[in-house]
Amino acid sequence: MKFLLVEDNQELADAISSRMRLDGHVIEHAANLADAKAFVDVGEYDLILLDIMLPDGDGRDFLKAHRASNHDTPVIVLTARSQVSDRIGSLDLGADDYLTKPFDHAELEARCRAVLRRKTGKTKTIIELGGVVFDPLAGRLSVNTETVNLRNRELRLFELLVNSPGQVFSKQKLSDRLFSYDDDVSENAIEVYIGRLRKHLENSRLKIVTLRGLGYRLDHVL
Amino acid sequence: MRIIVTLVIWMLPQLVLAQAWEDRRVFENESAEQTLRIISSTDTALFAPIIEDFLSKNTGVSVEYLVNGTAKIDQIFRADPDKFDLLISSAMDLQLKTANDGLALRLSDVAHPSWAQWRQSLFAFTSEPAAIVVNKAAFADHQLPRSRQELIEVLRARPDVFRGRVGTYDVRQSGLGYLFATQDARASETFWRLMEVMGALDIRLYCCSGDMIDDLSDGTIAVAYNVLGSYASVRVENEDQIEVILPSDFPTTMMRTALVSNDAPHPKAATEFVQHLIRLQSDHPKGVFLLPSLKTQDSDVDRATIPLEPALMTFLDNLKRRRFIEEWENAVIQK
Amino acid sequence: MSSDLSTSVSLRNRLVLILIGGAAILALLLFFAIRNYATQVAQQGQDNIISASVTSILDAAAIRDGIVEVDFPYASFSMLSTAFDDQIFYAIYQDDIFLSGYERLAIARVAARETDFKTVDYLGSQVRVVTASRTLIGKDKRTQVRVALAQTQDALSGTLTQISRNAAVFGASFFALATLLSFWATSNTIGQLNRLTNSVTRRGPQDLSPFHKPVPSEMLPLVTSLNSLMSRLDHSLKQSEDFIAEAAHRVRTPLATVRSYAEATLQRVDKEENRQAMRSMVRAIDESSRAAGQLLDHAMITFRADHLELQDVDLSALVHDLVERLKPIAEMKDLTLRLHSDTQVPYKGDAILLQNAVRNLLDNALKYSPSEGVIDIQVTAKPNIEIRVYDSGKGFPKDELDTLATRFKRGLNAEGTIGSGLGLTIAMDVAVAHKGMLRLSNKAEGGACASLLL
Predict the structure, then answer these.
(1) Could you tell me the residue range of the domain that residue B286 belongs to?
(2) Do chain B and chain A touch with ≥3 beta carbon pairs under 8 Å?
(3) Most CB within 10 Å of its CB: which of A210, B272, C44, C85?
(4) Is C345 in the B-facing interface, judged by CB distances under 8 Å?
């Protein structure tokens, strides 16, 4: 996926970018509206993350102009302003969703997924590996002819594993991805979701291997 | 005023005597508690039915009816207004002056048209024209006079027939006669010419209408001037003997009036009597109200009826009266 | 707000009082002036007639054969006839000798060509006496004839009564008309004020634009000050709004940055104690940003609730939108949001406030529901307009059901859950602003139920 992040705060932009890249997305950063316009004119993006308060203007004006020139790229507005006052205005102007700073990255991810699911065709993002067809947007996992809808945590767990087959993920890393910080979960909770995934993958050539003391790894069995 | 005062003093001894009255009758009610004293110039015969009718409706009242000439009753009443309840007279001028002098009681609850009453204290209840009344025998083959002018001509044409046989009121004694004479004189000079003609024919002068009508009916006189026609018709036994002529040039119509004394001993009953009179004149029941009712105020009658107004007192003024009588005597008594 | 202001005497009452009072005084003056004038005219009229009568009597006086004769005409008295049948009295004197008439009538001394007018009592009633004299010259002597003529004043007082009545009617009509006029003038004047008041009252709470409609020149200063006040108010409101927005931006942006870094760092740190520290940091950031957000929301809601902007809202659509928006967050916890709604639930209310209230209820439900739980949302139009949110969490602590909605109170069992505690307070305030209520209860089978009754 190719994202455009319009955000004037360099540190925040770096933080968001690095996290997005970690998930395997391509992300370009524009620090002001002029740059953003230049990026949009040249490149094609799957999603735009748009800050409202920018040094050279209001992000909503960019949104308005963007929609007026018949671009249907989905836009998620990032705002640091009051929830009540900004919400309606940006949705009315054509934003697909909004997010109030500071945000949980998992929430950003979830919202991006929801927006993309609504807006994008599935063909683009489908992953095929070891007899498994995986649509991360729809959360659908097909093994042979059998299709299951993954629940959100299963989906996120599988997405992480399937993007880097053969890589070892520690329990901590996985639970950081799966649970938010206000969920007080034990590290063992991750075992429940690993167990569920293994069950879904039974008839495929994908296996989740437990490496005691290290974590888990997705193996493509030939 | 002084004359009246002297007259009153002269008359006082006579008042005490019953024979001072021309007529006096008491109409008794068995259960009567009070006796209404009415002093009047109208013959008892004409008033008796009215009084009897009144008594039948007011059983608690008796009536003493006292009759005398208009001038006399005026004097008698003024002398003792507290001895009489009602004063009824045909002499409108004397009546008005009595009311004007404050001797009449104001009756607020008597409804009567304004032209027929004065100050709610003097109430008119008849309209009676002054007439020339003739004995038909004297005019056997002659045209009857229709006006004063014609009467003058008739008298002049046959002086020998009428000498000593014409009569009228002695205005010095009769209040009504004085009223008629002054009103006639006011209206036309013809009156003075007539008086002169009649004076030349040795006119007979009467104090009272009764005597004059009696003389007319028995032929002593052939012409009576300024007599109340209606009155004559009632008094004369054989009506065919006489002819009542209302002069066509200017009729003079008098209204008989009644007033209640300010010092009346029985003001309530007196007031009721006035109301009774007024009611009777308007209902005019046959055999009860023998006098002519008030004429409604239209055309001829209006002009002819002597208005009830303070001007009536003009000829009662001493100076005026002295002068008028002087002139009248000059015309009538040609010595 | 108006009840806080002390009022002096109402402008309308004061105006009406002044105008009516003035009219009453004018009417009284008018009445007395007319009556006084009429009295003079009527007395003048009577005097004129009596004088004419006296003159006609004097004219008739003559010396004949050395004797004074007064052969006055009938008209002398006739002209004194009145509709009220006034009595007349007169006396004629030659020098000082009584000649005729009413001897007891007091007669004034008058010089030739002089007329004396007097009002005296005679025979118990009040009479107007006019006395005049004339000098007659005979062959060998001069003599003076004096005539006094009196008339009662029944007709005069009758006329006066009539005129007084007319004057009273006239004065009363004048007063009635003036009163009507004063009411009209007052309500017209006050109407201008009322119109301005109405146009101020009718405005929406956010409308602070100046008044442009024409106003009477006297009210121009008021309206100008009002406009200037409103523009200042508008300016300062915009400023404070901008300030709040700017402040939020300034606070949240660095928080967001720190949070992002903390998250990123967490990915790379393996030591458990460091991880715990990072987690606590993120939690603290979340809590403070959430608190700031709710405080701002609550301030906004308090402001809006004071100036409730009622509009037609379909609660079903409103809740549906909210549920859609919260679905991604629910999914993160594998929670299921189930909306059971009547097709249309029309209501008159402030959409933004209602949205906020319901979002806070849903936030709570999301927060307190265990993983893979179910949240049921019901929107009903009958028997009550009601929005109910059921979660599958631990439920409200029983002994705190009544106090939970108080500001900054969090449930005892909320440990480990981020939240400032203002959520229920906001929902409650919105319900009260809409003359409704927030009802909290626990399901028998477990889980909390928050119900917004409107």
Answers:
(1) 2-127+255-304
(2) no
(3) C85
(4) no
Beta-carbon separation of B311 and C77 below 8 A: yes
pLDDT exceeds cutoff 50 at B16? no
pLDDT at B301: 47
Residues of C within 8 A of A100 (CB-CB) are 252, 293
- Is residue B189 one of the residues assigned to a domain? yes
Do B324 and B216 lie in one domain? The reply is: yes
Residue bearing the bigger pLDDT, C398 or C73? C73
Q: For residue A133, what is the enclosing H or E element?
A: strand A132-135
Instruction: State yes or no: pLDDT of B138 exceeds 60.
Output: yes
Minimum distance, in Å, between the CA of residue C69 and any CA atom of chain B: 7
Q: Give the pLDDT confidence score for residue C10 in this predicted structure.
A: 81
Interface of B with C (CB under 8 A): 1, 100-102, 114, 118-120, 186, 307, 309-315, 317-320, 323
- B: neighbours with 3+ CB pairs under 8 Å? C
In this structure, what CATH number is given to the domain that contains residue B142? 3.40.190.10
Nearest to B100 among C69, C83, C88 (CB): C88
Q: Which residues lie below 8 Å from residue C286, measured CB to CB, with a gap of 6+?
A: A102, A104, A181, A182, C259, C418
Structural domain contains residue B326? yes
Assess whether B212 and B326 both reside in one domain.
yes
Q: Does C97 touch chain B (CB under 8 A)?
A: no
Angle, alpha carbons C201-C207-C209 (nearest 5°): 105
Q: How many domains does chain B have?
A: 2
Residues of C in contact with A114 (CB under 8 A): 327-328, 331
What single letter denotes the amino acid at residue A2? K
| Cis before B145? omega within 30 | no
CA dihedral for C229, C231, C237, C242, sign (positive or negative): negative
Q: Which of A80-84, B82-86, C41-45, C184-188 has the lowest mean pLDDT?
A: A80-84
- In chain C, what residues touch B1 (CB-CB under 8 Å)? 102-103
Domains for chain A: give ranges and CATH numbers.
2-119 (3.40.50.2300), 123-220 (1.10.10.10)
Phi, psi dihedral angles at B52 (to 5 degrees)? -65, -40
Spatial distance between the Cα atoms of A16 and A26, rounded to a whole number of angstroms: 12
CATH fold of C15-161 reads Beta-Lactamase (3.30.450)
String of DSSP letters for A151-181: PHHHHHHHHHHHHSTT-EE-HHHHHHHHS-T
Per-residue pLDDT, averaged over B214-230, amounts to 89
Please tell me the least confidently modeled range out of A15-19, A180-184, A217-221, B82-86: A180-184
This complex has an ipTM of 0.88
Task: Say whether residue C289 is in contact with chain A using an 8 A CB cutoff.
Answer: yes
Share of chain C above pLDDT 90, in %: 25
A182: chain C residues, CB-CB within 8 Å: 283, 286, 367, 416-418
Which residues in C53-190 belong to E strands, given as ranges? 61-64, 67-70, 88-94, 97-101, 115-122, 125-137, 142-152
Please state, in angstroms and rounded to a whole number, the distance separating the CA atoms of residues A82 and A100.
8
Mean pLDDT (whole number) for B26-43: 92
Contact (CB<8Å) B310/C88:
yes
Q: Does the beta carbon of A152 lie under 8 angstroms from any beta carbon of chain C? A: yes
Look at residue B310 and tell me if it is in a domain.
no
Inside any domain, residue B311: no
Domain boundaries of chain C, sorted by first residue: 15-161, 203-307, 309-454
Shortest CA gap C253–chain A (Å): 6
| Span A32-59, average pLDDT | 88
Beta-carbon separation of B311 and C100 below 8 A: no
- Cβ within 8 Å, pair C253-A184: no
Q: Which residues of A16-43 are buried (b: 16+ CB within 10 A; e: fewer)?
A: bbebbeebebebebbbbbebbeebbeee
